Amino acid sequence: MGKKRESIKVNDKKGVGDGSGQTSTGLILGWSKNHFTKLHEEIDNRWIYVEGGVQYPQPVKVSIMLVYLPRGLKARKAVYDAIEDKLRSRRAAYPFMVMGDFNEILQVGERKGRQESGRGMTAFRDWLEQPHSHHLTIAMISF
């Protein structure tokens, strides 16, 4: 069986920003067509949402959302809302994975270098503590 790949790209040009002075070089979500079959996709300039079937060991329907959250709190909350909309609109109880760069920390000790806390960290923590969160497992990579 040959390796067949598929991907979705968003904002792959430098200079795309949210007015905060930060720029995005884009998002790319890719997969092997031998292991994942895309059934539905939605794309925004800050996220990619895909529903499909994983072929391991039996076919299972999953949702995957890749996000990039900007530094601006207002723009960040718009992405939180998009994630919430996807969580609420799923048509069945199947796995939902959200991954990407949330551009935020939950606790001051998570970040190396500049240590700051503020409204962004509080908003992120509040969002994660909402009722949907008991279904989410949080896995983080320190930076």
From TrEMBL:
This is Endonuclease/exonuclease/phosphatase family protein. Coiled coil: none annotated. GO terms for molecular function: endonuclease activity. Residues 1-16 have a biased composition (Basic and acidic residues). Residues 1-22 are annotated as: Disordered. Keywords: Endonuclease, Hydrolase, Nuclease.
